[in-house]
Amino acid sequence: MEDSESVATLMDSTTSKIHQLQKAFAELESHRAVTLNLKWKELEEHFHGLERSLKRRFHELEDQEKQYETKTRRAREILEKREAAVVAKEQVSLDKLQEKRDAAIFSISNALQKHRKVSSVEPAVVSYDDQFGSPAIDDQPPEAMTAESNLGEIIDPSENGNLEYPQLVELCEQMDSEGLHKFISDNRKNLAVLKEEIPLALKAAANPAQFVLNSLEDFYPKEVSNVDGKKDSTLLGVRRTCIMLMECLSILLMYTDPVSISDVISEDVKDQAKAIAEEWKPRLDSLDVDANNGNSLEAHAFLQLLATFGIASDFDEEELSRLIPMVSRRRQAAELCRFLGLSEKMPGVIEVLVNSGRQIDAVNLAFAFDLTEQFSPVPLLKSYLKEARKVSSSVKPGNASPITGQVRVLSPSPLD
C-alpha cells in the first residue's frame, strides 16, 4: 500500500511539472534562433495522454490488487473451515475410539469375572442365538462378549435333572455320535435348547474333541455326490448338525481353562482334524460360488472345522479368503472371519461381493468390520435396488436369480 500511495503522489504532481515545462519551453522559445516545427500544444497533448494512460493502468493495478486480497481472504477462510472440520472429525473419531475401548474393557472385565465364577464351580452354558459364531472371546466385538457373558445359568452337566434333555449326556458318555445325530434330528424343533445343552453334555464325553470329529464321518457320504447332496434334505440336516456340534465344542472350549484346552484338543486330534480338512478342501474347488449364493454348508463346515480345532494357520489365507463369499450370507460369517484371522482380507472380499452384484452381503460385512467409509452403504443399497427393479421386471415367474436370492436370505431359517 505504501508503494501505491507513492505512485499516486507522483501522478498528482504531473500537472505542476507540465506547467514548469511550459514556462521553460516559453523561455526557450523567446530565445530561439530558428522556428521550431513542434508546437507546445502538440507537446502538451502528448504529455496529457501519457498521464491518462498511466492513471488508467494504475487504477487497473489497484483493482487487481483488491481482487487478489479478496481471493486470498476467501481462501484463508475456506482453509480455516476445513482445518476446523478436520479437527472436529478427529475429535469425533477419538471419542468413538474411547467409547469402544471403554466398552471393550468393561466387557473383558465382565467376561473375566464370569470366567472366575465358572472356574470355581462349573463351566457355564451360553444361549447361542446366532449359530456358529466365533468361539474366542478375544476375537469378538465388545457387544458380543457382553451378551455371551450374561447368557445362561451355571449348570452341572452331571446333574441330568437340570437338563431338559438328559439323554444328551448319556449319548456323549457312550461316545455315540450316530445316536446323537439321530436325537438332534428327532428334536430339531427345539434346536435353541439343544444348542444350550450340548456344550454341557459334551463334558461328559471321555474325549469331546474326538467325539465331535467322529460325528463328521457322514458329512460327505461316499454314496452321495455333491450335486445330489444339495437336494437331499436328510443329508442337509446331517451337515447342519455337524456344523452345530463343532460350534458347541467351541463353546465348551470358551469356558475351559486355557491350560486344559490342550488336553481337550490334543495334537493327535489336531492332526486328525487337519487330515479331514485336507480331504474336504478339494471338494470345495468344484463348488460354484454364484450358485451357492453365499450360503454354502460345505464351505461353512470347512471353515468351522479350522476355527474349532485351531488349524487355520496350516492353510493359505488367500485361499481361505476366497471361500468367504461362499458363506457371506450365513449369520456366522463375520465371526468366522475374525477367528480365522482374515480381518485384513475383508476389503478384497467385500469388493468381490460388490462386483458380483451381492451388495446386501457387502453392506453386512462392511458394517461388521467398520469399513463403511470405504464401502458406503447408501450407494451400494441404491445399486442393489436398481438391479432388483431390473430383475423383477425381466425375470419370468418361477425363475430364481441372485438378486431374489439375496432377498430371501434377509430372514434366515432357524436351522441355518
How would you sum up this structure in a few lines?
With 416 residues, the chain is an all-alpha fold. The protein has helices spanning 2-12, 14-30, 40-120, 142-149, 167-173, 177-186, 191-202, 208-215, 226-229, 233-254, 258-264, 267-285, 289-292, 297-308, 317-321, 324-327, 333-339, 346-355, 359-368, 377-394, 402-408.
Highlighted features:
single chain, disordered C terminus, mainly alpha, 416 residues
Could you characterize what this model shows?
- Helix content is 68%, strand content 0%.
- The chain is mainly α and 416 residues long.
- The longest helix is centred in the N-terminal third of the chain and has 81 residues.
What topology emerges from the helices and strands here?
Elements: H1 2-12, H2 14-30, H3 40-120, H4 142-149, H5 167-173, H6 177-186, H7 191-202, H8 208-215, H9 226-229, H10 233-254, H11 258-264, H12 267-285, H13 289-292, H14 297-308, H15 317-321, H16 324-327, H17 333-339, H18 346-355, H19 359-368, H20 377-394, H21 402-408
